[in-house]
Amino acid sequence: MRGAVPRLSLTLLAAESGARLCAIIHYLVRGQLGWFGLTTACLVPGYAAQLLSILWFRADGHTPGCWLLALHLLQLGLWKRAAPDFPKPGCASRHGGSCRYWDVLRAEAGGGAGELLAQLGDVCVLRLLEALLQTLPHLLLQAYVVVAVDPAGFIPGVSAGLSLLSLAWALVSYSHLTCLLKPGHLSPPAAVLLCLLLWRTGMLGTRVLALVLFARLYSFWVFAVAGVHWLLMSFWLGAQQTDIVAQPCRWRLFNCLLGAVYIFCYINVRPGPSKTRVAVFYAVST
């Protein structure tokens, strides 16, 4: 089971990237330059995860080479590490800058459990960040195209569906990681991961559909509704006094960014029981 998670993650990442490229070509061929430009622009936020990946390489003592920079420029930094030597068991730092999906699979084949867990943790965090910054905006855009512009559009529909599934699985992978990090906890069975995937997919799908339908009916008023929700979530996160970020300015920025994520889904960032926080989240979000 531990090797199935990175394999499925890599498969969904490849399918999502291929469908996104097909959507870009689809708009370009049909002369829909507006949707072509917006779809291409959704790629830009994903470079934040690529930049963080490069910084983690430097933190681990690996000097970024030309092909490392080329991989990250092509947004392939999560696929393969760029250090010239193979990772050795126990060499990964707490940042895990040398860890990517192929390295996770290699560690699963021949490395120890500690090395695998460290590498899986790093790549799950990077993938979740990329999914929230890149996949989610792409999902919203393609869903709006399918609902409001071109209901018969096959390629935008497939791209939206794969983006939804990939985003949901990124959240499930993060939940799977948090379970593995807890002392004494084993890898959840496949049935649990499937239930989590169905829950995340349904939750994200209904929220995206609601926002798209609201945008179709009321146009730019959707930004006012989303803005109010974002402010409520940001203040609520600030009231919880999360200590995941130490510096005050970065702590405020973190709460603001996570507040935007909370428009669509709940991510637990504090240790301990979360039933009360989840109840508050759903009470405000519904």
UniProtKB/TrEMBL annotation:
<protein>
    <recommendedName>
        <fullName>XK-related protein</fullName>
    </recommendedName>
</protein>
<comment type="similarity">
    <text>Belongs to the XK family.</text>
</comment>
<keyword id="KW-1133">Transmembrane helix</keyword>
<keyword id="KW-0812">Transmembrane</keyword>
<feature type="transmembrane region" description="Helical">
    <location>
        <begin position="191"/>
        <end position="213"/>
    </location>
</feature>
<dbReference type="InterPro" id="IPR050895">
    <property type="entry name" value="XK-related_scramblase"/>
</dbReference>
<feature type="transmembrane region" description="Helical">
    <location>
        <begin position="33"/>
        <end position="57"/>
    </location>
</feature>
<dbReference type="GO" id="GO:0005886">
    <property type="term" value="C:plasma membrane"/>
</dbReference>
<feature type="transmembrane region" description="Helical">
    <location>
        <begin position="220"/>
        <end position="239"/>
    </location>
</feature>
<feature type="transmembrane region" description="Helical">
    <location>
        <begin position="143"/>
        <end position="171"/>
    </location>
</feature>
<keyword id="KW-0472">Membrane</keyword>
<keyword id="KW-1003">Cell membrane</keyword>
<dbReference type="InterPro" id="IPR018629">
    <property type="entry name" value="XK-rel"/>
</dbReference>
<feature type="transmembrane region" description="Helical">
    <location>
        <begin position="251"/>
        <end position="269"/>
    </location>
</feature>
<dbReference type="Pfam" id="PF09815">
    <property type="entry name" value="XK-related"/>
</dbReference>
